[in-house]
Write a structure and sequence with these properties.
By secondary structure, this protein is an alpha/beta fold. The chain contains 7 helices and 11 strands. Helix 2 links the parallel strand 2 and strand 3. The radius of gyration is 16 Å and the shape is globular.
Length: 200
């Protein structure tokens, strides 16, 4: 789990429901980290209590074992009854490429810790899939001019991912944003973030 915005340690030695409650009691955010089938027995009953989920991860670039697959992360995200914040993370533990997967956060200026957390909480994020197509929850992709959306993000089924449509989707997605900084902010080493200022 990725936790943002807390000031006191939350004990992991308790049921997941209690962990999530403790995070939210501090007005923190809880992100489901690499929610592959291997973890579904515990994660699925609590899915709608998470604030977001990793949907882009180095797993997407590898041939993983049967219960450790990127499509299952997408399924976890897509099938949530409550829209989750889309997170991309390089999950840097075992010598993967740091920053390989990133979260784009659309923050209203001035950029502060609070405004970053608010943007994540309000689902003003996106990440980019293997074909360069933006994946974002409804609050971010509402700005995307594409009419072909699923759960608020451009359709990215296996077939759609293979089609060369990324450039038009990206152009539409970025059209309403003035600039995007190349600066990345590390959040306890768990995610790479790009902050984008909204055009007024």
């Amino acid at each position: 789990m990725i936790t943002l915005g807390i000031t006191k340690t939350v004990s992991p030695n308790q049921p997941l429901e209690n962990v999530l409650a403790d995070i939210h009691a501090q007005h923190g955010l809880a992100i489901a980290a690499h929610p592959v089938q291997h973890f579904w027995a515990e994660l699925l009953p609590m899915r709608e209590k998470f604030d977001g989920a990793e949907v882009m991860h180095p797993i997407a670039y590898s041939a993983a074992r049967a219960d450790w697959r990127w499509p299952d992360m997408l399924k976890f995200y897509d099938e949530s009854a409550v829209p989750l914040t889309a997170i991309g993370s390089s999950d840097y533990h075992w010598g993967s490429v740091l920053g390989l997967c990133r979260t784009l956060i659309f923050v209203k200026e001035p950029v502060t810790e609070s405004s970053i957390l608010d943007a994540i909480r309000e689902k003003h994020t996106a990440t980019i899939d293997l074909q360069g197509t933006p994946m974002a929850p409804p609050s971010s992709s509402r700005r995307c001019a594409s009419s072909r959306t699923s759960r608020g993000r451009p359709i990215t089924s296996t077939a759609a991912r293979a089609q060369p449509t990324a450039s038009s989707a990206q152009s539409a997605f970025w059209g309403s944003w003035a600039r995007c900084s190349s600066a990345r902010v590390g959040v306890r080493g768990s995610a790479s973030l790009a902050l984008c200022a909204q055009r007024e």
